[in-house]
Amino acid sequence: MPGIKLSTEEGYINHYYDWGTSERTERYMLHAGWCPSAIAKVRKELDCLLYAASLRSPSTEKDHSRCTKRSCVANQINKEIYQIRHVSNNCQCVSWKPDEERILEIIKDGGVPLVCFPVDWPADSESLVLEVIRYQPGQQYVAISHVWADGLGNPYENALPAFQIWNLWRTICSMYTTVFDNFGIKYMWVKPFLRPPFLCPDKVVPFWIDTLCVPVIPSLQNYRREAIRRMRQTYIQADKVLMLDDDLSHVSRALRMSKEARLEFSFRMYLSGWYSRLWTLQEGKLARDAWFRIKDATLPAKVLYSNLALDKNGSMHRI
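The chain above was modelled as a monomer; its predicted structure follows.
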C-alpha cells in the first residue's frame, strides 16, 4: 500500500504518494548517457526519477558503460589515457606553466604558492611562465575546486592550455566585479569566449588550483605530499572558492528568476560528479565564500541556496 504524507502547512493538506520506481525510465536514462550511480540516487521516488529523466543528460564525453549503481568509474582517473581538455574541440593552444622552482621553494619553506595571471596577453605566449607568489596573511586569492574527470587536470606536468587559464582568469575577474540585477543579486555574466584582453578589475587576484600548484612528477613526491597536506588550510584561508563541474554548465542564469530553473540546479548539483566526490565536497564545505560557475554566469552559493524556495515536502527535500 502506498505511503501517504499529510501536511497542514500554509492552511492546506498535501498528499504524498510513494509510487515506487520505473524500470523503463531507468533504461531510458541509461541510454541517454546518465550514470547508473546517479540514477540510483533518485530511483526510490518516481517523481524525482521522472524529473531527472526530463533533463538534458550530462556530458556525453564520459563513458558510463562500466559504472555501477554504487560507483561512477567515469569520474576516476586513468593516467595512461587521460586527456587534457581545451576550451573547444578545435582549439590547439599551447600550454602555460607556473614557475616550478618558485613553487618548490614556497612549499619547502612551509608556504602556499599562488599563481598570477599576466596583465596583458603576452607577445610570446608559447614561452610564457606564469608568475608565482607566496600567500601572505590576509591576502585575497581564489581556490578552485574541480573534478579532474572534467579535463582540467594534468597527470604529466603542472600545466594547462593557455585559453583554459584565460577562461579561469575571466571568471575570477568577474567575481570581483560588482554587478547587480533587478533583484539585487550579485552575479557574473559570461559572454562567449573572447580572446584577451577583456575588462578586469583594477586589482589582480591570484589563484590556486591543484593542477598547477601541486607537483605531479614522481621525483617530487615529497613536495607533492607536503602540498596535499596543506590543502585543507588552502581552502579555508581562500577569500573565495570557485566550484567547477561540467554537469552544472547546462543551467542558465535564469535560475535566479525561475523556480523551475532553481529546481534543475538542485538536481544537477545533487547528481553531479563534484557533489559525489568526497574530496571536492569537502573543499566546498571549507569555503568561506563559495561560488558556482554555470552556463552563462558565476553566482555565489549563498544566492543559489537562498533562492531554492522549495516546499518542505518537495522532491529535493525528500532526496
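The two ends are 21 Å apart (CA to CA).
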